[in-house]
Amino acid sequence: MAELLPANAPATLGNLQLLAKQVVEGFRSGLHKSPHKGFSVEFKEHRSYVPGDDPRTIDWKLYGKTDRLFIREHEQETNLRATLLVDCSGSMAYGGTRAHGLTKHGYAVRCAAALAHLMIRQQDGCGLVTFDTKVRKFIPPRVRPKHLTAILTELAGTKTGGETDLGDVFHRMAAKLPRRGLLIVFSDLFGDVERLIPALAHLRHGGHEVIVFQILDPDELDFPFDRRTRFRNLEDRADHHTVDPAQVRRAYMERLHVFREELKNGCGRQRIGLVPLTTDRPYAEALGHYLAMRRRGR
């Protein structure tokens, strides 16, 4: 878990706030107020009773055990409820030589860990969904510090494998996320754009703000292969081809361009934030740059 969230990651992100651009449930006019105690669902801590405290806040069960008066303090409900959606399908297992030893999935996990730390630190609720062909794990948003441990533990244990139909998975997720909030997707988005965009729009129509971090390896963008190469489908190990890259490079680059343009235009029409990230860029630096622009309203 320490490897997922290096000590310098929060410092790199600094005090930047992850601000939602649209009104989401419980969001109060942009910047969060300082945490203050009151009646709420989320228990914070006990403290000793002092004269003048509301007797209704006394923990009588604890009094019965200790013969001392303690007050149950709570945090007011969080301003923002965010859910991190991490793609664990086979295609996320790719890692080229320029990615500093990280696969796309490893990069996604580190980005998700950094944002979970940031949001819980600023008293926002944060949850996690991991998925491939189906939802593997769903951790509802919470704001307690211990909740970060649960999220990091799940991220640390995820493995890639299997095919996925992102369109189908996102449609099914929409039914599991009934409360409006911020959804942050980490995926390469490889799939049928004509199915993917309506599925992301389904999440948007549920009242959520959706941000998609599209994580790609540099090899997938410039196709640097220059000798006869065996390419294997990471979602179907039986599917592989040995080809001369020079013969397929042009067709690959053209299809990649069309794919990225269709994805960009489709997300734009649905007001979905699309943020391209490449695994050769330090993830804390990339997130910090995005959050800085977001705070300035760009």
Structural commentary:
This protein is α/β, with parallel strands linked by helices and 298 residues long. 37% of the residues lie in helices and 23% in strands. The protein has helices at 8-13, 60-66, 104-121, 145-157, 166-176, 193-205, 218-222, 245-269, 283-295, and strands spanning 37-48, 70-75, 81-87, 125-131, 135-142, 182-187, 209-216, 229-232, 240-243, 273-278. Strands 5-4-3-6-7-10 form a 6-stranded mixed beta sheet, with helices on both faces. It is elongated, with a radius of gyration of 22 Å. The two termini are 33 Å apart.
Quick structural gist:
The chain has nine helices and ten strands. It has 298 residues and is α/β, with parallel strands linked by helices.
- Strand percentage lies at 15-25%
Shape: elongated
**Strand sequence of the main sheet, in spatial order?**
5-4-3-6-7-10
Binned, the helix content reads: 25-40%
Q: What is the N-to-C order of secondary-structure elements (H for helix, E for strand)? A: HEHEEHEEHHEHEHEEHEH
Helix/strand-derived category reads: alpha/beta
Number of helices: 9
Number of strands: 10
